[in-house]
Amino acid sequence: MSTSPIRYELIKTCKQTGARLGKVHTPHGSFETPVFMPVGTLATVKTMSPEDLKQMGAGIILSNTYHLWLRPGHEIVKEAGGLHKFMNWDRAILTDSGGFQVFSLSDMRRIEEEGVHFRNHLNGDKLFLSPEKAMQIQNDLGSDIMMAFDECPPYPAEYDYMKKSVERTSRWAERCLEAHNRPNEQGLFGIIQGGEYEELRKQSARDLVSLDFPGYAVGGLSVGEPKDVMNRVLDFTTPLMPANKPRYLMGVGSPDSLIDGAIRGIDMFDCVLPTRIARNGTLMTSEGRLVVKNAKFAKDFGPLDENCDCYTCRNYSRAYIRHLIKCDETFGLRLTSYHNLYFLVNLMEKVREAIREDRLGDFRDEFFEKYGFNKPNAKNF
Questions:
Q1: Among all residues, which ones are annotated catalytic?
Q2: Where are the annotated segments for RNA binding (predicted)?
Q3: Residue 98 annotated as part of some ligand binding site
Q4: Which string of DSSP letters, residue by residue, matches 330-377?
Q5: Is 55 annotated among the ligand-binding residues?
């Protein structure tokens, strides 16, 4: 009888919204939820050091099975002593299964019951990824939380296609459990699919919950659907997930969606959004979206955000950061990336505090008003 190394502890439920404050325990430490997890695709969060991430309060980060399989290769990471030692990160790591990358990066792919045939996006080589291979790679990487290999259908997708996809994902989930070689050291999460169809989400959740994973993710959202569709799907999907296990919404990182997801009972979020837009000079601030490359900031010697106490805002001006970004200086990317990651990590700390004080609904209203999300033509990311 295996004992899962991942355990969820419920601390408090917000009386105003039903959102939950909790703690996830892993082999490499515990972290409070709801939480935003920075993404380190290739065993590094772009431009950030592990010390930077610790300084801003990150307790868990993500890495990517598909990309690490291609470079440097999971065998090399295993020989280094696992991903934690390889990248010098001693806190929790979650690895996704590679499924999303297979379906999003490769134009040439063929889905079969055994797995997916596709081409390496770097050099065109033929590759094959199956539930068993995804488990082998993640076992070698040694992450605290592994993700089951699933099919990631496009949005929108026809009901009949989605039904077959959900059924295949359930069969693959069983194979993932059977192929998982380190169940006492690494937790494996199942992924609930089904698109916007309530009946199929129920079917997927029923199948996966019966397999007793130590945690569950909602997949197939943040793939182009409107925000109201995402929220509607979460409204009927989250209650289908066990209350005593972590709930993870994959690929979501805009501030409004983090708050809305937390209100709907989600514990964990991740997204490349904060670092991706940072490299283009777009910042998340307490007053809304700020594009520091704009000419009006050329002589603005104030911080990116007057209400932020991150390393960037304490030490550097908008004018200086604009100069660095315009000159393609790496330090500029580092400063903007630090700020955006800090903003989301800090936002979730404020969300947790609001849950403690039973006022998350009020916090949402105040934040949306200040951020401009309530305006008809509000600019999002």
A1: 96, 270
A2: 251-257, 275-279
A3: yes
A4: HHHHHHHHHHHHHHHHHHHHHHHHHHHTT-HHHHHHHHHHHHTTTSTT
A5: no
**Annotated binding residue at 101?**
no
Has this prediction a pTM greater than 0.85? yes
Listed in order, strand segments (DSSP E) in the chain are 7-13, 20-26, 29-33, 35-37, 60-64, 92-96, 109-111, 116-119, 126-129, 145-147, 187-192, 216-218, 247-249, 268-270, 282-285, 288-291
Amino acid at 309: D
On whether 271 is known to bind a ligand per the annotation, the reply is no
Rounded Cα distance between 88 and 96, Å, is 19
Backbone φ and ψ of 258, nearest 5°: -65, -45
Which among 3, 8, 138, 25 has a CA at the least distance from the CA of 91? 25
